[in-house]
Amino acid sequence: MREQRDQAIHDLWIEYKDSGDERAREGLILHYSPLVKFVAGRVGSGLPRNVDQNDLVSFGTFGLIDAVDKFEPERGFKFETYAVNRIEGAILDEMRALDWVPRSVRSRVREIQRTMAELEHRLQRTPTEEEVADAMGVPPDTLRTHLGEIANLGFVALDELLNASEKGSGSISDIIPDLTAVDPSGSFEKEETRYLLADSINRLPDRERLVLTLYYYEGLTLSEIGGVLNVTESRVCQIHTKAVMSLRNRFIEPASR
After folding, report:
1. Among 5, 64, 92, 220, which one is least packed by beta carbons within 10 Å?
2. Where are the CATH 1.10.1740.10 domain residues in the chain?
3. What is the pLDDT of residues 30-80, one digit of tens each?
4. Distance, CA of 92 to CA of 89 (rounded, Å)
5. pLDDT digit string (tens) for 166-202?
6. Is residue 93 a contact partner of residue 188, using CB atoms and an 8 Å limit?
7. Topology of 103-256 in CATH?
8. Are 229 and 236 in contact (CB under 8 A)?
9. Where are the domain boundaries for CATH 1.20.140 in the chain?
10. Which DSSP category does 246 fall into?
11. Residue 171 · residue 203 · CB < 8 Å
């Protein structure tokens, strides 16, 4: 059954790319439409509640259509890998156009990142929350509140960190090429990225490193991590946000210089 379905999709691709048949195009869009809901759900999970999921699906659908139109099957890559990037990019582009994030929050993110970068350069290590708060001239509790607000807006996630490092949209898992394709340069860049990221994570304070490990590698929820560390879920969220901001300063910005 699966082989028959795969063959049918393969035939649709041939028909559409050879003749531009609109029915074949519509069939492809319909077949891959679940990808839009998947990506919209992943993006929407970190956005404020007032962001309508249906809007994200609508934005992502344009990305899917664009992916179908521009995909080149003969290049040997899986369409799903290519489409996820296009869909997520379309959603994020539209969200940026709507400018749903308050300017004050954007300014706060830049201020915290700049302060952390300056402290890391001077101290040659990841600064503590108390040190960051002192440099910003605010109480530690205020800094933690800011980190919580930023995290609730979905501003920082390890997936987004990997987006910038790979100069594209999507996480590392989204842009890994088909295993049957030979791309020595891509394999080298992927391994180098993994090495640099692992090294940066290992240089984080123990608690921040543990939070990232439990969340991204062990698959624990923030609530479960809170139980492990004996802190509240919101506190785990703050630790996670600070850790990823630190990784940004160490991993992304130096790579762009």
Report:
1. 5
2. 2-98
3. 999 999 999 988 887 766 666 778 888 998 999 999 999 988 888 878 888
4. 5
5. 444 444 444 444 455 555 555 656 676 677 777 788 8
6. no
7. Butyryl-CoA Dehydrogenase, subunit A; domain 3 (1.20.140)
8. yes
9. 103-256
10. H
11. no
Kindly report the number of other CB atoms within 10 A of residue 102's CB atom: 11
Per-residue exposure over 119-158, b if at least 16 CB sit within 10 Å of its own CB, e if not: bbeeeeebbebebbbbbbeeeeeebbebbebbbbbbbbbb
214: nearest Cα among 254, 158, 133, 145: 158
Say which residue the tokens 């996480």 belong to: 171
Q: Which two tokens stand for residue 132?
A: 């960051």
Domain covering 2-98 assigned CATH 1.10.1740.10 in the classification: yes
Q: According to the model, what pLDDT value does residue 163 have?
A: 43
* pLDDT digit string, tens, across residues 118-140: 888 888 888 888 999 999 999 98
CB distance 113 to 121 below 8 Å: no
- Tokens, residue 17: 């790319």
Q: Which structure tokens are listed for 193? A: 């990225």
